Amino acid sequence: MSEQRFTLAVIVGSTREGRFAPVVANWFAGHARRRAGITVDVIDLDTVRPYELRHGSEEMALFAKRVGAADAFVVITPEYNHSFPAPLKHAIDLLHQEWQAKPVGFVSYGGISGGLRAVEQLRTVFAELHAMTVRETVSFSMAHGLFDGEGRLREPAAADQAADALLDQVTWWALALKEARRVRPYGT
Questions:
Q1: Neighbouring residues of 5: CB distance < 8 A, sequence distance ≥ 6
Q2: Which 3 state secondary structure label does DSSP give 86?
Q3: CA distance 65 to 60
Q4: 102 vs 107, 132, 145, CA distance in Å?
């Protein structure tokens, strides 16, 4: 059974004041925690403060350890000006090996596009780091109106279905790549 478990890091990509990211991240992390076999580690970049991390520091070592310990990632990202937040790019760029040969999924939100333009750009960034992005995504167009004041989806059926599809793919790849890394360590 232990070989069927994996650690999923949920990366909260927005650090803006008044951000909506915690609402979306809390919903998704709660959904993922209901799945057997998944240990969820929420890594909130507002707490990590990637621009303040310095190589050799204790904070940098802790961030690298958490990312390195994950077997898979789901990035929660808004779309800002047709792209993803700069602190998210900086946090990704701080590490290299820790991302390699691991799956990455996306939950995005924004205006009419639901953050999908940010996701498409993130796919190219993670490809360069030798990470494997999954096809399924969860996307929230006009997200603020989809959640109530308590952070619950007003109509959860479609989002729950999309989250299940995303988690199915992430789980398959996480377990497959975890086993592959155990048998043959990945190196570039």
A1: 37, 38, 39
A2: helix
A3: 8
A4: 17, 6, 33
Is the CB of residue 124 less than 8 Å from the CB of residue 89? no
Q: pLDDT (tens digit, 9 = 90+) per residue, 74-107?
A: 999 999 999 999 999 999 999 999 999 999 999 9
Residue with tokens 């789901």: 74
Residues 6+ apart with CB under 8 A from 36: none
Closest CA to 27 of 114, 150, 169, 112: 150
Tell me the residue type at 103. P
- CATH 3.40.50.360 for domain 2-183, yes or no, is yes
| Block residue for tokens 């290299």 | 96
- Give me 60's structure tokens: 């940098």
Claim: this prediction has a pTM higher than 0.85 = yes
Q: Which residues pair with 43 in a beta bridge?
A: 11
Alpha-carbon distance 92 to 46, whole Å?
14
What pLDDT digit, counting tens, does each position of 149-172 carry? 999 999 999 999 999 999 999 999
Task: Record the tokens describing residue 73, joined without a space.
Answer: 């990632």
Residue type, 119: V
